[in-house]
Amino acid sequence: MKARGITGETIAHIPAEKPLILVVDDDPGLLTSIRATLASAGFLEPALLSDGRQALEWVRRHRFPLVILDLLMPHIHGMEILALLKTEFPATEVVILTAVDDVAMAVEAMKYGAYDYLVKPVSREKLIIVIERALERYNLRHGLEIYEGESAFADLQHPEAFASLVAEDTAMARVFHQAESFAPTDYNVLITGESGTGKELLARVIHILSRRAAAPFMAVNMAAFSQHLFDDEFFGHSRGAFTGAVGEKRGFFEAAAGGSLFLDEITELSPDLQAKMLRVIQEKEFFRLGSTQPRRVDVRIIAASNRDVRQAVIKGNFRNDLYFRLNTCHIHIPPLRERRGDIIPLTQSFLNKYSQAAHKELTLGADLKEWLYHQPFPGNVRELENLIVSAVFIEKGPVLGLSSLDLKAGAAAGGSAEAPLTLAEVEKQHILKVLGSTEGNRTQAAKLLDISLRTLQRKLKAFGPTEAS
Fold first, then answer.
1. What angle do CA 200, 206, 211 make, to 5 degrees?
2. pTM value?
3. CB 95 within 8 A of CB 114
4. How far apart are the two ends of the chain, measured CA to CA in Å?
5. pLDDT value of residue 433
6. Between the CA of residue 4 and those of 8, 12, 264, 348, 448, what are the distances in Å?
7. CATH of domain 12-145
8. CA-CA to 30 of 20 to 30 Å: which in 48, 187, 206, 418?
């Protein structure tokens, strides 16, 4: 995008998409170089300013999370700007980038609150790492500042949007506030957390609270796509693009136009497909298979992974430029074992839901409460739900207690050394028990499981021969 407001050697440039970073330096060549460096690394285009006297007013107007600041500039010294910025906007991170290689100056800058002090010339790799870490610290501090104490949930502006997520533990208050803060923006969001923590549910909340709420929300599991399937499913095809293409097909990007595209398990995407995804996100356009006509993309990307994406980048399994594009805003959902205040509320919610489905009136026993509270739940909320729904269909009396659980769960409660069930095994047992409770009626079982009959049939086929087959 061509810079606006450039007169001679004076640069005052604000990109169309709200920037996260402001670069202040009286050297136009350096401003251009930093902009190119950030673009190549996948960051949003930064704002550029060559007159340091305007820096404070620009931060007041645009609230940049990060400012990259030179020290030696005409009219005003960078150290004075730093002191004013950190006094008025202590949450804004400031990285000093200067030709002054002076230890005393660096110490002074750090005392004022600078995140780091870099001496020109600085390598591209070091600059990118420092910027990434500074933005991560800003996100962390911002998240911590927006809630304090037990009043966090009461401070939500749209609590009704989170009705699908049962939570009382304060660890989730931060998650909810982050979602509420990021939702109105158009920034891409990366949600991390172990399997079963509710990443897709949170993604849907972000969509509901965004300006795109009236447009589609599409959820896609990235682990399911090969090279050919990816192109066809994401970009679509034109008539005659390949044998059997008798008509045109819209891909996910077109189907989600104006809305949000949720990319689950993004780290499972192969390197080749990561490159294709990056190009679409970066260029905001794509080509259908068999077409030379570019099509514009207007979707918000919400990605998720149960892995540590940064570690995947370090190990070379995930592109760092794609990571920067997706990680504009980051939300981490803690596992259930780290928010034990949610275990009993979730249990009660599942008990109410499945008791009603089973036409039973059940109360939660104290012995089961105690046992559940101390379980590690490697499968998180999904594992807890499977455990409760199985117990509901087994229990014949009025109280759901420890004896309502299956034998393996009961043995685990008694301190057996038997290895815990995998999430796949828990799911299988749960599905078979529900199917048994309906006396083999697959349609009714699918309804109780809240899945389609086709999905149930596919899962039963994958289980192989069973008594319920």
1. 140
2. 0.66
3. yes
4. 60
5. 75
6. 12, 7, 38, 57, 58
7. 3.40.50.2300
8. 187
